[in-house]
Amino acid sequence: MNHVSNIYRLGIKELWNLLRDPAMLVLIVYTFTLAIYIAATAMPDSLHKAAIAIVDEDGSPLSARITSAFYPPHFMPPVMVSLAEVDPGLDAGEYTFVLDIPPEFQRDVLAGRSPTVQLNVDATRMSQAFTGSGYIQQIVLGEVNEFVQRYRNSPAPPVDLALRVRFNPALTPAWFGSLMEIINSVTMLSIILTGAALIREREHGTIEHLLVMPVTPGEIMLSKVWSMGLVVLLATAFSLAFIVQGALQVPIEGSVPLFLVCTTLHLFATTSMGIFMATIARSMPQFGLLIILTLLPLQMLSGGSTPRESMPEFAQNMMLVAPTTHFVAAAQAILYRGAGLEVVWPQMLSLVVIGSVLFALSLSRFRKTLSSLA
20-57 burial, b for 16+ CB within 10 Å, e for fewer? Predict the structure, then answer.
């Protein structure tokens, strides 16, 4: 009971220290509120409100049909400009696309010639440039073919493809972006908070005070793990309820308590990782550099950005030792597909094993660090 009491009181001390750190509080609030909303709503859709201008040098019924084919939500209403206004408009970023219809375009089409229509693209807007070019090509060719045939007709395809989309029927980017941002934020904040707590003790000189107290290194480490993990867990539950389900209206298919249990197991591993990194770094700037080197591969290769099946086999096998790989798989199965314990228990078991190994390594390293200070 003395060990439990020490762990509890030391954890309360960590919570009070966190409350006195306004920078960390702002980071936590921003990460689990505004950052989640921005990540969900800023994900590029296929094409949405792209700015387009048209140079109509023909003035024919065909060019008018092409102009009227561009309408929201894919494109903004076309702006009619002259040829001299094309380059200044692109340089100023007023248009993403400028379509130049040449003179006598309709006459050349009806005569069976192959007139050239020029499309100028602002490729600095990468989220729209490549997709929009294909859209415009299909629209122009479709209007020209219908004009030549003199009627609108959709030929019957030889195969009828029945498309059924599961888990996200409308293919809404916010459904994926918001939940994956929460998963990434759990990993990032848990490492930052625990590592910063330990480095703050060293910089303020309070770690020496702990050495003369009747507490063990394991108690000190466990107090930081449970206190910082609890903060991240509560922030995750809040963000899931009020930002994802509330503000963004993203439906959750599975059990939220089961997801929070998986999050707790993941936090056990990542908080231990944060302490291990803090024992290596000598200052907060060094700790920040270590976080960058660690978080990038953890997030990029965990399966949250791209499916693990599309990665090289070496990367797939290498990331099996990372807790984020199993956490992302379990979280996606629970939140997207409504999976239960009978499906995600292998990932949960892997998180327990990886967390135990990381905790043992971190405790060993932490004891050596305290021995050097004693």
Answer: eeeebeebbeebbbebbbebbeebeeebeebbbbbbbe
